[in-house]
């Protein structure tokens, strides 16, 4: 197996006047979980569709296990599994029938597809519901079935496009465990997500995507270290006062303070721990009432704010509209 299971070089894609990918470069090492972190519209889903041969790039080149997604689409499809934001299962079929059908699409014999379906259904705790119509399944069960079906052909590369969106905490934890097991078995997983905790826990490397480009890449620890300071978060009792209060704290920060008007919060990257006490003194002198003050290490959300000026879960709908 090639060292890099997935490679993208200068990949571009546009939907009319909307640029979804703008010269994106990416290398995913075989046998790892690679996280693509970014808001809706950043280009994550477009990249997954290109890697799955569902879209042709406008420019650039992408390969999966050395096979070009444009020149060798069949070879790519035989080596990947795909689970998206919405479970792609047939509600009129049973869970078993869904998995067996995908097995046959992987060119397994009928007997092998049945045997693999039994394995997958047991692994995903769906054996008892296997012969029920999928229309009776919960959202978490459908998502597990969708992921299980993508694994029935035992592909060496799995593309997971925001697989836990909308799931309850228990179902999300279950899927996280499955992803960790896949990596332990040597499967390469490309995971797109808006959930910072998800990327932090699962991915050995993370790329931050914004406006169709990768703006930063590294381990979770290295990305956090790149912020270069602790984060001081000051939340005001009256959110309407943040724009007035922020200038009073500006010179305490290593960078421009980030103001979240809706939450009534001011975030500053600080190198001196005493900055928290000074911030309290300054705002108290101005008659600004503080609800909470927190000094903590940077998170992936702080990395994203530093790089893009907005939170990872902020909606940017250009890609969705396209």
Radius of gyration from CA coordinates: 23 Å
- Share in helix: 25-40%
Largest sheet: 6 strands, mixed
CATH architecture of the largest domain: 3-Layer(aba) Sandwich
Class from secondary-structure proportions: alpha/beta
| Straight-line distance between termini | 36 Å
Total helices: the number is 12
User: What name is given to the CATH topology of the largest domain?
Assistant: Rossmann fold
| DSSP strand content | 25-35%
Order of helices and strands: EEEHEEHEHHHEHEHEEHEHEEHEHH
Mean pLDDT: 88
Core attributes:
322 residues, alpha/beta, Rossmann fold, Alpha-Beta Plaits, six-stranded mixed β-sheet, four-stranded antiparallel β-sheet, 12 helices, 14 strands, disordered C terminus
């Amino acid at each position: 197996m090639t060292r890099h299971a997935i490679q993208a070089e200068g990949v571009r894609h546009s939907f009319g006047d909307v640029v979804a990918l703008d010269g994106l470069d990416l290398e995913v090492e075989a046998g790892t979980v690679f996280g693509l972190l970014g808001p809706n519209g950043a280009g994550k889903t477009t990249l997954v569709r290109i890697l799955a041969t569902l879209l042709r790039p406008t420019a650039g080149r992408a390969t999966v296990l050395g096979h070009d997604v444009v020149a060798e689409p069949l070879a790519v499809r035989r080596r990947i599994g795909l689970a998206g934001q919405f479970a792609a299962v047939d509600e009129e079929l049973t869970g078993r029938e869904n998995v067996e059908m995908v097995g046959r699409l992987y060119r397994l014999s009928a007997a092998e597809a049945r045997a693999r379906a039994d394995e997958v259904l047991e692994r995903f705790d769906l054996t008892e519901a296997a012969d029920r119509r999928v229309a009776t399944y919960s959202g978490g069960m459908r998502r597990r079935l969708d992921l299980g079906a993508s694994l029935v052909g035992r592909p060496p590369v799995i593309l997971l496009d925001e697989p836990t969106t909308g799931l309850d905490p228990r179902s999300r934890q279950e899927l996280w465990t499955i992803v960790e097991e896949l990596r332990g078995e040597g499967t390469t997983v490309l995971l797109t997500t808006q959930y910072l905790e998800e990327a932090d826990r699962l991915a050995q490397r993370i790329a931050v995507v914004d406006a169709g480009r990768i703006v930063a890449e590294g381990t979770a620890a290295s990305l956090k270290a790149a912020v270069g300071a602790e984060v001081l978060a000051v939340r005001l009792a009256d959110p309407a006062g943040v724009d007035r209060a922020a200038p009073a704290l500006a010179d305490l920060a290593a960078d421009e303070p980030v103001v979240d008007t809706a939450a009534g919060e001011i975030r500053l990257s600080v190198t001196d721990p005493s900055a928290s006490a000074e911030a309290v003194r300054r705002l108290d002198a101005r008659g600004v009432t503080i609800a909470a003050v927190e000094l903590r290490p940077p998170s992936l959300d702080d990395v994203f704010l530093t790089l893009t000026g907005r939170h990872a879960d902020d909606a940017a709908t250009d890609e969705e509209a396209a």
